[in-house]
Each structure stands twice: as structure tokens, then as C-alpha cells.
Write a structure and sequence with these properties.
The protein is α+β, with helices and mostly antiparallel strands. The protein is built from 3 helices and 8 strands. It catalyses: 1-(5-phospho-beta-D-ribosyl)-5'-AMP + H2O = 1-(5-phospho-beta-D-ribosyl)-5-[(5-phospho-beta-D-ribosylamino)methylideneamino]imidazole-4-carboxamide; 1-(5-phospho-beta-D-ribosyl)-ATP + H2O = 1-(5-phospho-beta-D-ribosyl)-5'-AMP + diphosphate + H(+).
């Protein structure tokens, strides 16, 4: 869902309230199932590229660089819809996830839950992370 109109992209960017580090949190959700896949950050450049290309781009705080989802793992996210919350400070990205979303090899990063007072995994990896990242 690339947004071809630069003025429309500019309006979305202008409505977005970035934090003091110039970032905004983004929740990635599967467009078809509603499953919450992951949370990451975008800066203005990542948001602009996401809107322009339709391929989801985040900002990696650890690398201090753009992170084009799937760049090394092949687990790309294609944008289906992008929504801004009522305060303008959180984005919901409805995506088509190719493969798994989590670097642990799981479909979703949200795989830990309290069960009988213990934090336990509620899903198993679908793919070995070493295969995803060539380690």
C-alpha cells in the first residue's frame, strides 16, 4: 500500500508526534488475523520510506540505523494499512507478514505469558534463528 502522493505522506508525518529521541512506537499486526506480531520504533525517515514503498521500515536503536524488516532474514512485512492513534504518538501497522516476525523464529514476539505464576513460552519457534540470520 504505497502512498504515491507526497503531500499525503507529509500530512501523516506532520500528524505524528515523535518523542524527544525523534521516534514513535509502532505495533505491527497481521492484517488478516489480527495477531499482534511485534513492537518497534520508527523515525521520520523510516515512516516516510514505509509510506512511499509499502515495505515496512523501522529504526533500530541498537544499530542507530534504518532497519528494513526482512533485510537479512527474508521475513519481510508489506504494509496493508497504517493508522495513527488519537494522540498521534503511536502507530498501528497492519501488515502482511512473510514468514515469522520475531528474531527468535516465532510468528510473534509476544510469546511469553504467566502460567501458574511462572513466565513461560506459549509458542515454539517455527524456524531456527540460525537459519534466518545465517549464523
Amino acid at each position: 500500500m504505497p502512498v504515491a502522493d507526497p503531500a499525503a505522506r507529509a500530512r501523516f508525518l506532520a500528524a505524528t508526534r515523535f518523542n524527544e529521541q525523534g521516534l514513535v512506537p509502532v505495533i505491527a499486526q497481521a492484517h488478516d488475523t489480527g495477531e499482534v506480531l511485534m513492537m518497534a520504533w520508527m523515525n521520520a525517515e523510516a515512516l516516510e520510506e514505509t509510506l512511499a514503498t509499502g515495505r515496512v521500515v523501522y529504526f533500530s536503536r541498537s544499530r542507530n540505523a534504518l532497519w528494513r524488516k526482512g533485510e537479512t532474514s527474508g521475513q519481510v512485512q508489506q504494509l496493508k494499512d497504517l493508522r495513527l492513534d488519537c494522540d498521534g504518538d503511536t502507530i498501528l501497522a497492519l501488515v502482511e507478514q512473510q514468514g515469522v516476525a520475531c528474531h527468535t523464529g516465532r510468528r510473534s514476539c509476544f510469546y511469553q505469558a504467566l502460567r501458574e505464576g511462572e513466565l513461560v513460552p506459549v509458542s515454539t519457534p517455527e524456524v531456527d534463528p540460525a537459519v534466518l540470520y545465517g549464523r
